[in-house]
Amino acid sequence: MSEAASPGRPLGVGIVGGGFMGAVHSRAARAARARLVGISSSSGARARAAAEELGLERGYDSLDELLADDAIDVVHVCTPNALHAEQAAAIVAAGKHIVCEKPLATSVTDAAALVDAVASAGVTATVPFVYRFHSLVREARARVQEGELGRLLSIHGSYLQDWLLDAGDDNWRVEEASGGRSRAFGDIGSHLVDLTEFVTGDRVTQVSATKRTFFGERAEHTAITTEDAIAIVLQTAGGALGTLLVSQVAAGRKNRLHLEIAGSSESIAFDGEQPEAIWVGRRGGSQLIPRDADQLHPDAARLCAVPAGHPQGYQDAFNAFVADSYAAIEGASPEGLPRFEDGLRAARVTDAVMDAADSGTWISVVP
Ligand code: SOE
C-alpha cells in the first residue's frame, strides 16, 4: 500500500521518458511545487542529459533504479505508447502513484489489468485527458448539467493536426508495433471522444467509421497500416447522433480540437486553439462567453489562474490536471479528474472504432 507523502513535504516526482511530453509534465510538476527528483529514459546517458535539460535532480540507468528511490512518490510515464502498460504495471507494483500518458495501453486487456492493479495497490492513477482542464470546457459541462442546452440532439467534432502532412514526416507513432493498432484516433481522437462524453455526460454506444492511410511510405517506415485520418458516425445512449473527423494531415491545423454540441434549446461549441471563449448558439441570438471567472460556474472559475484578458492555454490546462492529480494523492477528490478507468474507456472506444473501420459495419461500444 503506498503511503501518501507526509504532509508538508513536497511530493517527490519521477519521470519516464524525456521527449516533448516529458517536458510538459515536468513544467506542470514544478508548477505544482513538487520536487523533481529524477528521470529514466532509454539509456542512462539519455536520462542524465534529459535531467540536465529539464532541471531534474538526477538521471537513472533504468526504471527499476528509479522505482527503488524512496524519495519518489509519483511517476509520470511519458514514453512511446507500446511501453506504457509494462512500465505502468511496474510502477503500480512498486506502490508508487502514477500519471500515465494516453493511451493507457494499446489493448483493452492491458488497460483493464492496470485498472485492477491500481485498485489492489490503493494508489492514485490518472491519465492526461487534459482538454477537460480548460476552464471553459468546465463551463460548457456545467451548462449541460444544469439543462441549459435541453435534450442532446447532435454532436459535431473534429481534431485536426498537420504534423504528418508530408511523406517525409515520420515518427514512432506511425508504426503499429510502437504506437498501437490505431494512430490518429488512438492518439487524438481519444481526446475528442473523452471530451464529448465528459461535457455531455452521455455515452457513445455505437460507431461506424472509415479510415485512410494516405501515405503508405514515409521517411523511415514502409508498408504503413496505421491511419492518417478517420471519419466516424456515432450514436449515444441518450439518442443523439454525431460525426467526428480526426486527421493528422490537415494543412494549417496545428492542434485543433473542435467540439459542438446541439441541444433542443441551445448549442455550445469549444475550440481548443481559441480556448478563451465558448460559443453559445440560440435561435434568438448567439453569444461568446469569455473566460472571466466572475461570470463562470465554480468548477470553471477554479481553473482560472489569471484574470480575463490574460490568455490561458495548453500548459495551463496541463498544470491544472497535474495539480488535481497531486491533490488526489494527498486525499482530495477533485471534480472531473481522468483516472485509469477513463484510460480503459478510451481503449474500448478505440477498439470499437477500429473494428467498425475494418468491418464496414456499426459496432457497439462495450459500456
Ligand atoms: C501528438 O499528436 C500530441 O502530442 C498528442 O499525443 C497529445 O495527446 C495532444 O494533446 C497534442 O498532440
How is this structure best described in words?
This protein has 367 residues and is an alpha/beta fold. The chain has 2 domains: 3-129, Rossmann fold; 131-309 and 338-364, 2-Layer Sandwich (Dihydrodipicolinate Reductase, domain 2). It is 34% helix and 22% strand. The chain contains 11 helices and 15 strands. The chain has helices at 20-31, 44-54, 63-67, 84-93, 108-121, 135-145, 176-179, 184-200, 298-301, 314-329, 340-359; strands at residues 12-16, 35-40, 58-59, 74-77, 97-100, 125-126, 152-160, 204-212, 229-236, 241-247, 256-263, 267-271, 277-281, 287-290, 363-364. Strands 14-13-12-11-7-10-9-8-15 form a 9-stranded mixed beta sheet. Strands 3-2-1-4-5-6 form a 6-stranded parallel beta sheet, with helices on both faces. Strand 4, helix 4 (84-93) and strand 5 (97-100) form a beta-alpha-beta unit. It is globular, with a radius of gyration of 20 Å. The protein starts with 11 loop residues before the first strand and ends with a strand. The model has no long low-confidence stretch (mean pLDDT 97).
